[in-house]
Write a structure and sequence with these properties.
Blueprint lengths: L10 H4 L3 E5 L9 H6 L1 H17 L3 E6 L25 E5 L8 H9 L4 E5 L3 H13 L4 E8 L9 H15 L1 E3 L1 H14 L1
Parallel strand pairs: 1-2, 1-4, 2-3, 4-5, 5-6
Helix pairs in contact: 3-7, 5-6
Length: 192
């Protein structure tokens, strides 16, 4: 009798990682000068986005929607110039912090065995919530520390948020930088 091959055993071997870009849109409380102050982060985001496109890596754009009131329509914020999704990209809208709060995102990550890298602007709340949800699902992800921007407030400066979030993210996933992740996906492409 022939043996039966369980293809689910090989699910993670053939599934490419996804690049998840969080918050690369204009926020209602965010001014243009705040975006311009994060030029190094935006540059790193552009670099990983370009590399992901070159390697054919799936790209997911995640944006948070801010309804004015329960009775008003949702407002779709405009994308930051240069980060507009292409037709082949995935776009997920959130009303809650975790990317997994969007059912389609959750399904996409289940299909890719939770293999993704996360980067973006002002997404520390989203990144933390997503990391915890990914951990509970047994998903492996990379946090691109140099491609995430933080806003300080009266309780703590931006660098304090960045340092704290980096330590917490290391508990749930892999902390790396954009250049290292880009090299890894390039190497993966040449091996496959």
């Amino acid at each position: 009798m022939p043996s039966v091959i369980d293809f689910l055993e090989f699910k993670g071997f053939t599934t490419p990682p996804a690049l998840v870009l969080v918050g690369l849109h204009q926020h209602p409380e965010q001014r243009l000068e705040n975006v311009q102050a994060c030029s190094a982060v935006l540059s790193n985001c552009r670099m990983v986005l370009a590399r992901a496109r070159e390697c054919g890596i799936p790209i997911a754009h995640v944006r948070t929607l801010y309804p004015k009131s329960a009775s008003s329509r949702l407002r779709y914020p405009p994308w930051i110039a240069g980060f507009e999704p292409m037709r082949s990209d995935m776009v997920f809208d959130l009303l809650q912090p975790s990317c997994y709060s969007n059912m389609e995102f959750s399904r996409a990550m289940d299909h890719s065995n939770g293999n993704f890298a996360i980067a973006g602007m002002f997404g520390h709340t989203t990144c933390l919530a997503t990391a915890i949800d990914a951990h509970h699902r047994g998903h492996e992800f990379s946090y691109l520390a140099d491609a995430i921007a933080f806003c300080g407030d009266e309780s703590a400066p931006a660098h304090a948020y960045r340092d704290a979030v980096g330590v917490i993210m290391a508990m749930y996933g892999t902390v790396t930088n954009g250049a290292r992740w880009s090299r890894r996906i390039s190497l993966r492409q040449t091996v496959c």
